[in-house]
Design a protein that fits this description.
single chain, mainly alpha, two-stranded antiparallel ribbon
């Protein structure tokens, strides 16, 4: 009997030792995906929540941030951290400027009509994509990470930079929450979101608010792209998956809900990492699509969204 007990304990230990490293690695990779996805989806959610505009070009703002990050980091010589920090500051500002001009030249002239703005943002998508193909090229190009330190964990060492992406995303999400809930800017945004006409009657410059929100949404996507591009590569078609996953996150979490966006991004990211590790990436996408379908059927406003009045 003691021998059987010892054998059973040894078998359990060996199974944990075999399964544990894969599960930990999948969870860590899923957290990195969740961090980038939360920032990207938050930008999409803000734009729809305040402006009621479905920004189909959101993924291309993500791509543009990555491409600009490559251009800026390669143009600056010296330690990779210098070029990366410069890209982290300059690329989102340039993307925000492009988004601001797009809002001013296109969306404002359509009076933010929901159907018209969908068509318009599809046009913006193709314009940005083709400009990137023309001036950047079809090649996927890497960006060197600012540091390559590895943190020792049980079973293996893990990239310190990837963990820093998770930390940076968490800090930005907290800052966004504070701005939305604790500042006058956030109050103005929420007032514009709830009732555009009343906000205008009280002297709030609604068009300026919309321009700022559209630019900030694009900048969040660009920041996410700059953070992820040292892990992946910059490519002119890389905006498609972030756009699709952002829509999935926003639908599940609830349009305009910061809490819902974060929770849904964590769920999608972790499930994608774990299912992709043990089964296949295709199965992960199928399950995510099924979850979206169930949410649309049983809770159309999302897990944390509110029912329109």
């Amino acid at each position: 009997m003691p021998g059987r007990a010892e054998g059973g304990a040894l078998g359990t230990y060996l199974r944990v030792m075999h399964f544990g490293p894969h599960l930990l690695l999948a969870a860590l990779e899923g957290l990195v995906t969740s961090a980038v996805l939360a920032l990207t989806a938050l930008g999409l959610s803000l734009v729809f929540g305040v402006m009621r505009v479905v920004n189909v070009a959101h993924g291309e703002f993500f791509m543009l941030g990555a491409v600009l990050a490559w251009a800026i980091s390669t143009a600056i010589s010296g330690h990779p951290a210098i070029g990366f920090v410069a890209a982290l500051v300059i690329a989102p500002l340039l993307v925000g400027l492009v988004a601001f001009l797009s809002e001013w030249l296109v969306l404002r002239r359509l009076n933010y009509n929901p159907e018209s703005t969908i068509v318009a943002t599809i046009g913006i998508l193709y314009i940005i994509q083709q400009l990137a193909l023309t001036f950047y090229g079809p090649e996927a190009r890497p960006v060197e990470p600012p540091f390559s330190y590895r943190i020792l964990l049980p079973w293996f060492g893990y990239s310190g930079y990837k963990l820093s992406v998770v930390a940076a995303s968490a800090i930005l999400l907290v800052i966004t929450w504070l701005v939305l809930t604790r500042t006058r800017i956030g109050l103005i945004m929420r007032a514009t979101q709830y009732d555009r006409e009343t906000a205008q009657a009280f002297g709030i410059p609604v068009e300026r608010v919309y321009a700022g929100v559209f630019a900030v949404g694009a900048m969040l996507a660009a920041i996410a792209a700059v953070l992820i591009v040292p892990i992946s590569q910059a490519h002119y078609l890389m905006g498609q998956d972030p756009l699709l996953l952002s829509f999935i996150v926003v639908i599940i979490g609830g349009l305009g809900s910061l809490r819902g966006t974060v929770v849904a991004a964590i769920l999608i990211g972790l499930s994608d990492g774990i299912i992709s590790m043990f089964f296949s990436p295709t199965l992960a996408k199928i399950i995510a699509t099924l979850v979206v379908a169930m949410v649309l059927v049983f809770r159309p406003q999302g897990l944390f969204g509110t029912t329109p009045r």
